[in-house]
Amino acid sequence: MTANGLLQLAFFLGAIILLTKPLGAYMARVYQGERTFMDPVVGWLERLIYRLSGVNPAEEMDWKANAASMLLFNFLGLIVVYALERVQQLLPLNPVGLGAVASDTSFNTAVSFASNTNWQAYGGETTMSYLTQMAGLTVQNFVSAASGMAVLTLFIRGLARHSAETLGNFWVDMTRSVLYILLPLSIVLSLVLVSQGVVQTFSPSVSVPLLEQTTDASGANVTQQVIAVGPAASQIAIKQLGTNGGGFFNVNSAHPFENPTPLTDVLEMLSILLIAAALCYTFGKMVGDTRQGWSVLAAMMIVLLVFTCWAYEAESNGNPKFPSPAVDQTTTSLNPGGNMEGKEVRFGIVNSAAWAVATTAASNGSVNAMHDSFTPMGGLVTLVMMQLGEVIFGGVGSGLYGMLVFVIVAVFVAGLLVGRTPEYLGHKIEAYEMKMASILILIMPLTVLGLTALGVILDAGKAGIANPGPHGFTEVLYAFTSQGNNNGSAFGGIGANTPFYNLTGSIAMLISRYWLVVPTLALAGSVVKKKLVPVSEGTLPTHTPLFVFWLIAVVLIVGALNFLPALALGPIAEHFMMVH
Amino acid sequence: MVNELQAGKQVVGSTSDQLKNRPIALTGEMVRRAVGDAFVKLNPRSMARNPVMFVVEVGSALTTALWIQALWGTGEAPAWYIGGVSLWLWFTVLFANFSEALAEGRGKAQADALRRARKDIVAKRLNAPRHGSPFEIVASSALRKGDVFLVEVGEVISADGEVIEGVASVDESAITGESAPVIRESGGDRSAVTGGTRVLSDWLVIRLTAEPGGGFLDRMIKLIEGAKRQKTPNEIALNILLAAFTIIFLVVCATLLPFSIFSVAAAGQGTPITMTVLVALLVCLIPTTIGGLLSAIGIAGMDRMIRHNVIATSGRAIEAAGDVDVLLLDKTGTITLGNRMATEFTPAPGISKERLADGSQLASLADETPEGRSIVVLAKEKYGLRGREIHEISAQFVAFSAQTRMSGVDIQSDGTSAQRIIRKGAADSMRAYVERLGGVYPAAVQQTVQDVGRAGATPLVVVENKEVLGVIHLKDIVKGGIKERFAHLRRMGIKTVMITGDNPLTATAIAAESGVDDFLAEATPEDKLKLIREYQRGGRLVAMTGDGTNDAPALAQADVAVAMNTGTQSAREAANMIDLDSNPTKLLEIVEIGKQLLMTRGTLTTFSIANDVAKYFAIIPAAFATTYPALNALNIMGLATPQSAILSAVIFNALIIVALIPLALKGVKYRPVSAVELLRRHLLIYGVGGLIAPFVGIKLIDLFIHAIGLV
To answer: B48-62 pLDDT, tens per residue?
Structure first.
């Protein structure tokens, strides 16, 4: 670790905190149907969409109707993406002439983008036509993010209202998320990215003569390099902002056409956490007590900071097994030092580590360095960030509603500790809420551990593993952790584009997104009916540092305890084998 | 039986602090019975009610099978080791069962005693509902609701009922443990009688209000025995969470086997994790501490109520008591001592204090009301006037009557002194009296009367012949320590509301003096009901006490309703708790017991989950010692061998249940502090303590079993 590196971290986290309030307050206005400066720009479009689709924006729905709407809408999106991939060779905007995508890959990709996971079993530039990338994937980047934000908004209304039946209208919240929040932010970010050199074009790939000629595997001379280009900037902006993470190019944000400069790097990194952080403020605003939002954000920030420093420290220390004269791992002004394998020199240790932690914390999944090449402890951090259930920022919308479920569990136990039936924001937490909360914390570890067990026991699973020893185990664990939490980042080192991994991965992504949405909305549908319990001296305040600490403890204990044995056989074993 | 309940009674009579510190008296017989019951409870059908412990039982059976296999020489590990783990897993189940049986034991003993009181007795069923009507002798079990029967001196009342004719003294010690007899009479608030109590004098004609077997005594037996014990809402919610943890850890352990098989192949060394270790890990991880003690905590909560001589009709009511945020308290008896007392004499202009005191005392000598007696006492204490007997001074007492609205004394002239006609009474009637006699009612007295009223006291004006002597202050005396108690409640977030029939002026003054948060003056039963509904609409939980028939609607509406045992049958039926001591202040203790119940569950849950961290550090390096020896770096406790590490963790897990049984039965000590303060305290003790304790415990057990050469 260097002072410069820590300063960059402080700047990064400081910028997020500064942006939280203005964006959060704006989003609260959007979701409460209040007038904003964007009304003249997109108001007509919003009304037009409602008229064309027959949605009555004034109509409110209960949790079941909202859940059904969300599932139906996402199912249709999944079908469209699948169809586009399967017939892209017949459709325009395919200058390279890419063929139809294999059915298992198509299904996996369709599920992946509909569920806001953006796990990519394929290499973008060599698999997907421009039309598929734009009309299929980028559209899903917007609406899958907006779906998460809409579900969160419905959930927040459940907490904000008392003695009510309805939560709002999914279609309205989803439309407004796209038009008022995601679209304007993406346009601004895309333009800045283009100014920095991110490509945005419909031209086919470019061929350039090699300065240094080489030979390929068969011994033939290679004189030309094919450089893939395409409409990248527009997709990159939303994949960062919407915690999607699916890159235009295979190597994602490590690619110079996706993330060319330190400026784009910090902007893209900010975009990963920006909306998820600001939604905390939106939450506080909508329940009428911004302290509630800040305390949740504080818990997220503290965990993120601690784990970022941990990963940064691990990567800075490098690999003690390397002989010191041969491999110089000391940090100097000329040498980044530490473990630079799989990292871009233009980002160095600190920005690679910070990105890795942010992208796994936030269910984004875009990468600017190869997680497979991280030190065991660095890799462990990325795994743990996902295994906490993607609640440290998490996906836009989904992260916060996941965190609020943890808050409810924390409130429940804390309520018992102080001798009072637990209540949160004036709602009594009773058996039904605990049932839903239990399902929500239960499903993810079951899915991830169960599928990982399949992966390491079946030959179809073992065939994809590229590395020996505990590292190979980590690769399988990471693949299912990433998909089972709708993160989508790849550890690498695993041949995941096989029918086995495509199918099991799809199951993990479907469960993690849609099975969790139903109990989440059911929970909101239950608390919204409850009578307001007025605050008294006996009420446990949920905005104190003590409660923030308790919430962190609950998140860590529930998350860490489930995965510790598995981690022991992966990164932890690898770490101790490396240092001993 | 009487002795046992009386023992409980004495405890109630002592201060509540003494009670909480009093260790639970366990007889050897109760412990022996609990040990036996612990084995009986191993029946899988009864274990299945508790998912956590059921998993442990299945694990115990599985390891036992593995042990038998090992005895045949084909085991996955040495037989002594599998057998050791298996034995301690069985102990874990037995310890949990023991805790439940022990908690039930106290209740069973009490129930047995009560059952002896409910001997099958005969009743004299009357043909017509009046005394003197012919009767037939039937078995009490043949009586039906609505039947009328006669009970005469020395007989036991055969079932719960309402007195419709007669007055009698009744020995209710079978129920209350109080040996002093009580009066039961028809009409009014003393008409309810309980089956199993004995008529000591006179006779009663009683109409049956409960079917046989459904009477108060039967209900009490059922409650105490736990036959009707249902899981309370909060307990259900906690059970769901614990079941979720159990399922998660089941999957964690089940998937560890394929993980381990893969790792052995990947590392090229070692053997896969054994079933024994997997089961041991599972049992250590699932929340057995709270899972094993949960049921005992609930039963003990009910038991604590019984030791406070409160019978709760459901566990739900006890739990609700912890959540109460508004207490409606009757002024008389709860906030103030039962009666008003004279506190001061204010003489009229030109009259000495001594003369007023003398006149007041004379006027009250024969006044047997508590107020009258308090005037005599005040005169004696303050002015040294000794009590005189009426006959000594040839005086004639004039009793209070509704017409004159005054009382007093006429002292005949004995030659040396003039005739004295002394009267005391309410200000307005005394003014009319003086003016009718042609006397002057001084303005200063009028002023005093107003001042006294404003201060919350009642003024009595004393007149001798036609001269006004002055004013006696009669005041409600607020119970000592009640102000501090209300301050405690306020800190806990509980609002206290005083209910009184007094006028608002008096009520304001008493409310200010007692520190109560709010009051309802000139309260009628309808007002009470309305007030409760209002609070409930605002989302509050309301507790109240009551005894009269007119309290019944409000009791039925309140979330926690405590009826006095001396109260009417309808009040007792409307309530969800009955206070056998008939002490309205008991409500405060009931709230504390409810909170204690929740806190005990919360603290043990936190402790149980926090324990898992240390168990991982013991078991993970041991389980994978042959595959990845490097993982021994996690063995920060320095446990001797893999076997001793796993055995120590399992033994700790079992022993901690035994160690915490006293806490589960006694409950976490209640402190009247704010929620934040309480959370901080409990997190520190049970959260941080729960992290550290098993590190120490497992290490000590490891040292011990290593020292005795077991491993």
So the answer is: 888 999 999 999 999
Chain A residues near residue B605 by CB distance under 8 angstroms: 413, 416
pTM of the model: 0.84
Helix (H) or strand (E) holding B298: helix B288-307
**Which are the contacts of B467, defined by CB distance < 8 A and separation ≥ 6?**
B348, B351, B439
A537 closest CB neighbour out of B491, B597, B633: B491
Residues of B in contact with A569 (CB under 8 A): 259-260, 263, 624, 627-628
What per-residue confidence (pLDDT) applies to A76?
95
> Which three-class secondary structure state does DSSP give residue A229?
coil
Q: Which residue ranges make up each domain of chain A? A: 3-210+224-579
The answer to whether the Cβ–Cβ distance between B240 and A537 falls below 8 Å is no
Give the Cα separation of B562 and B571 in Å (integer): 9
Q: How many CB atoms lie within 10 A of CB B181?
A: 17
Instruction: Tell me how far apart the alpha carbons of residues B165 and B480 are, in angstroms, rounded to a whole number.
Output: 40
Count CA atoms within 13 Å of residue A266 on its CB side: 12
Q: Contacts of residue B256 in chain A, CB cutoff 8 Å?
A: 565-566
Tell me the mean pLDDT in the region B410-425: 79
The single-letter code of the amino acid at B299 is I
The gap from C-alpha A135 to its chain's centroid, in whole angstroms, comes to 21
Which of helix, strand or coil describes residue A204? coil
Whether the per-residue pLDDT at A349 is higher than 50: the answer is yes
Average pLDDT over residues B450-462: 84
d(CA B398, CA A491): 102
Taking 50 as the threshold, does the pLDDT of residue B14 lie above it? Answer: no
Q: How far is CA A155 from CA A159, A171, A401, A426, in A?
A: 7, 14, 7, 15
> What six digits make up the tokens of A94?
């395919």
Handedness of CA A358, A363, A366, A370 (dihedral sign): positive
Q: Ranked by mean pLDDT, which of A309-323, A548-562, B53-67 comes out on top? A: B53-67
Q: What is the rounded average pLDDT of the residues B453-474?
A: 86
**Neighbouring C-alpha atoms within 13 Å toward the C-beta of A277:** 26
- Are the CB atoms for B517 and B492 separated by under 8 Å? no
Q: Give A87's DSSP letter.
A: T
A484 touches chain B (CB under 8 A): no
Is B620 in contact with A531 (Cβ distance < 8 A)?
A: no
CB contact under 8 A, A456 and B262: yes
Residue from A418, A423, A430, A542 whose CB has the most chain B CBs within 10 Å, to mutate: A418
Rg of chain B taking only CA atoms, in angstroms: 34
Alpha carbons B110 and B5: distance in angstroms, whole number: 8
Q: Name the residue among B262, B319, B676 with its Cβ closest to that of A546.
A: B676
